[in-house]
């Protein structure tokens, strides 16, 4: 896939920050609904296995609800395939990481803040995924040593604000692993994130045809981050 230069990254960041494009709501999308009708019991049928993931949502936290970007990324990896060990940052309900587990990942670790961990642990236990583990991680002061060495890092809809975006970038720079980060277009933290990771990573936005054809929307972006060689940083 083509990799973006620093100037391209800056241009993408600026475009996303000022984007006024209306959100596109197709049949599978849930964020078009009001909070009172949108959250409850969520089911996701994995392909090609047919396994059904079940998640009980709560309005108590952004981390206990399923967001559209997580669904789009889960379907994207069903199309692309996955292998090896995977670390999910800001896992929330754990949909993306659990879907990657069902798709063929060898081992998945889902990380979240301590307040969200109990909900995440119950969800993993309910879905009987033996190769999935939950761990607590605070991006602002957590010890990252145990999270090194994964084959792939993923994160979805975690660029809500500058604070989150910069903290996530700090973690990724330390881990220095191939990464996919998904976001809804126009999130406040997108530009800050792209500028923060650019010195350590080659960054590219996945093209529309990379997505599952039934789960591609112009207002959902997925960035691929490839670590730069040490000589280029």
From TrEMBL:
<protein>
    <submittedName>
        <fullName>Uncharacterized protein</fullName>
    </submittedName>
</protein>
<dbReference type="InterPro" id="IPR019410">
    <property type="entry name" value="Methyltransf_16"/>
</dbReference>
<dbReference type="InterPro" id="IPR029063">
    <property type="entry name" value="SAM-dependent_MTases_sf"/>
</dbReference>
<dbReference type="Pfam" id="PF10294">
    <property type="entry name" value="Methyltransf_16"/>
</dbReference>
